Amino acid sequence: MELMARGIVIKETAVGENDKILTLFLEGYGKVQAWARGSRKVSGKLLAVSSLFTYAKYSIVKRKDTGIITGGEVIETFFDLRTDIVKLALGNYLLELAGASVEENAAEDEILRLLLNTLHVLTKRDLPPKFVKAVFELRILSLSGYLPELHSCVSCGRESGLTRFDCVAGGLLCGSCESDAPAETIYPVSAGSVDAMRYIVSCRPEKLFSFTLSPASLDQLAEVAEGFARVMLERRFKTLGFYHSIV
After folding, report:
1. d(CA 187, CA 165)
2. Where are the domains of the chain?
């Protein structure tokens, strides 16, 4: 089967002296593994479309579980990420998180648009990386089937006095129920951070990064979003460790 689709390189693995196996996140097809033969050669015709962050239109011959890239046309490279080590580290984490959030060969176009929009925001707008990271984490989890309960206590159903977020239970806890949960998965939240979370999971995509919050509320949001991602996806990300080592 031959396909043509736009997509972004979210992982690359060197093979031999000249080739790579790419993990592509393709519109209409989801996560796809594909050979990029000769892509490590300076003169290779696939060199320009075979690097991390490259968004391109690909021609692929699909064979069982792996495809062979036969051509490509660059749309965007997000080159400016490479001029800022913090943004580059965060960008790599966004790619890894996206890869962990989608299944092989399952179309997830809304998540793909989220990833591309977030990389654009990270590259072109002067927003705190911590803010961009937290918004992306919570939004991608919501789109992946991990929509948190943000309007009532996940334990008793109470709608007021919500002061903690339980990453295991996947939602807010009231003051009466918070003492029953293991402390390492519980984070304090204020009215400001709760409002931010509600906005992130429900707003229109084009408005996702169009809000502000106090430094204290941002710190809470960042802790909740990262902890929630770690618990729900049941993994630790190497790229996240590097990001934290430089911020």
Report:
1. 5
2. 2-76, 82-151+159-246
